[in-house]
Design brief:
single chain, binds magnesium ion, Glutathione S-transferase Yfyf (Class Pi), Chain A, domain 2, binds adenosine-5'-triphosphate, 10 helices, six-stranded mixed beta sheet, alpha/beta
Length: 368
């Protein structure tokens, strides 16, 4: 797919913007704080209903304004798709409104799969070196964009988990444990689609990511791979296996007033040449690893819908050495890509279709 138009209204540092980037690569160049990432964030908001860097929607409303709006219209092979998001400041007492092809949608899940994107940002290094939560989020975002089914399944699981944890709290305070069985059943049923989708995704991702790593890294002897880790990672009957676990751990769960087993504890094990990438990989290797995971995400989304998602590369080029940069740009040929950089020299000999300068809330053609 490619963007026909991107409109921002009172979004972050922008009062009003309308862009129609060309099909290939567009580079946004500007100083630190110029508003480059803000543009990519706007696209991400339309794809997933949320920012990639904050969970506080109000931060995205231009200072002093009550409301912000973003709209993106894309050309897909099967037609035009248009999604929009309007945000309101808390003072307005209104909920965020989503628009899909001119109609309002009541739930965030409805957005999924319309306009899809893969975002690579500098914070992504945390996927490798940070807590498991970041790796779960990586999987969850990817699977949600594959279709709303996963998004709703995860929501259902999280709701069941919340209820079970609330009940555990009450049991600690003396309530009866009689209804726990019912919540165990609910949790186990809800866990099934989440676990199965993650098992499938990781198996696909590891093949793609391995190939990308070898190509971009340019060293055949470095093998990168992903493995699904968790109580049910290998389970063929996740509902039955989780139920067993919950029974075994019931006393501990009650003592700790929290659910200690289930997909909310899952992790991805990332390995480089057979060793834990978290401890073993250099900064540059970690960056290449995450980039490979993002490109693998792109492959999955593409295979799922037959349509390449939009690729958003924030501040990637300056962090890669020349060879890696060239091989990355070769890889993404044919995918509409929005890139940011602070200096045109980061482009080296790359030839993007458009170079736009971001300055003072305005976007203009850059010359030289
Ligand atoms: N809600 C808002 N209202 C007005 N301005 C905002 C808002 N949120 C952020 N900004 C401004 O946007 C700018 C940051 O934009 P952005 O993160 O896109 O910069 P950038 O060009 O990506 O910079 P860097 O090169 O450092 O990554 C800051 O100057 C900040 O003051
Ligand atoms: Mg930035």
């Amino acid at each position: 797919m490619h963007i026909l138009s991107l409109r921002l209204h009172d979004f972050r540092s922008y009062r009003q913007v309308m862009l129609s980037p060309p099909k290939g690569a567009t580079v946004f160049v500007g100083e630190n704080g110029a508003g480059k990432t803000n543009l990519l964030e706007a696209v991400h908001l339309c794809c997933l209903g949320r920012s990639h860097r904050t969970s506080a929607d109000k931060e995205m409303i231009r200072e002093g304004q009550e409301t912000a709006a973003v709209q993106v219209k894309v050309q897909r092979e099967d037609g035009v798709d248009e999604v929009g998001v309007r945000l309101y400041s808390p003072a307005a007492h209104k909920r965020k409104v989503l628009y899909i092809n001119g109609k309002t949608a009541s739930r965030t899940g409805e957005l999924m799969g319309h306009v899809t994107c893969v975002m690579f940002s500098p914070e992504d290094l945390d996927i490798v070196r940070g807590a498991p939560q970041g790796r779960r989020r990586f999987l969850d975002m990817l699977l949600s964009q594959c279709g709303k089914g996963y998004f709703y399944a995860l929501q259902q699981y999280n709701n069941a988990l919340k209820q079970r944890n609330a009940l555990l709290h009450e049991i600690v305070r003396g309530a009866s444990a009689a209804t726990l069985d019912a919540w165990d059943e609910q949790l186990c049923t809800a866990a099934v689609p989440v676990v199965k989708a993650r098992q499938y995704a990781v198996q696909k991702l590891t093949g793609y990511a391995q190939e990308h790593y070898a190509h971009i890294g340019g060293r055949a002897q470095e093998q990168f791979s992903l493995r699904y880790e968790g109580h049910l990672a290998e389970s063929l009957q996740p509902a039955e296996d989780l139920l067993k676990l919950l029974h075994e751990r019931r006393q501990e769960d009650i003592r700790r007033a929290t659910t200690t087993a289930g997909p909310h504890r899952d992790d991805l094990f990332l390995s480089l040449s057979g060793r834990d990438a978290r401890a073993f990989a250099s900064q540059g290797q970690m960056r290449t690893a995450v980039l490979s995971m993002r490109l693998a995400e792109l492959d999955m989304l593409k295979n799922r819908s037959g349509e390449a998602p939009l690729l958003l590369l924030d501040d990637v080029l300056s962090e890669l050495d020349g060879g890696r940069r060239t091989r990355l740009l070769e890889r993404i040929a044919g995918v509409q890509t929005l890139l940011t950089c602070t200096d045109l020299s980061d482009l080296a000999d790359a030839k993007p279709e458009a170079v736009l300068r971001v300055q003072g809330g305005e976007i203009t053609e850059a010359h030289g």
